Every structure is written in C-alpha cells, then in structure tokens.
User: What shape does this take?
Amino acid sequence: MSQIAGLKDFRKQGAPGDIGTFVKPTTAIVFQFTFSGTTTYVAMRVGLSGWVLIDQGTVAATVINAALTEVGGAADGEVVVLEGAYAILATLNVPESVLFRGVGWATIFK
Assistant: This one.
C-alpha cells in the first residue's frame, strides 16, 4: 500500500492528481484543495512517522489558527501556508515564538 506524507492509499489508485507533492522543511503546513466545488483547508504538522492532521475545514482562518495554536508551544515553530488565495474573515493569532509565512507571491491572503 503506497503512502504519501504518512497517509495510506486505501483506494490503491495513487495520489489524487490535484494534491501535488510537497516537501517543506517546516513544523506545520496549511494547504487547500477543491473537490466537487468545495474548497477545503487542511493543516498538518510533523509527526514521528510522517504528517499528522491538525485541522481541516471550509473556513481558512479557523484552520490556520488551529495550526498556529498547535505550533505555538514549540520553540522556533513555523507555519507555512502553501500556494493559493485564502479568504481571511477572522483575526489570525500568531504566537511570538512562531514564524508565519506563505510561499512568496503565490500565497495570497484576502
């Protein structure tokens, strides 16, 4: 059974074409994907044997804040938001110990 980012492929059909492959040296990542017209945001952190789900949902700010809170206890933690446009409709609470960044001009917060 193949694995990507510690996730098992129970369908045995390989990774979905739109999920991409990511290798980012960071504490946590946030990314988005669209399936059947619904955009879902996912936050994952580094675990002992791959990536561990922090949160997922349809509200970008909620998922990003969950990642920031999770990483906030770690010294020198980092949250990277991958490419895409993110509608931020609430305050993002960035702890002092966390580096919060996007991937250059490809990450847009609106």
About this structure: Confidence is low (pLDDT under 50) at residues 18-24. The radius of gyration is 14 Å. Residues 3-97 form one domain.
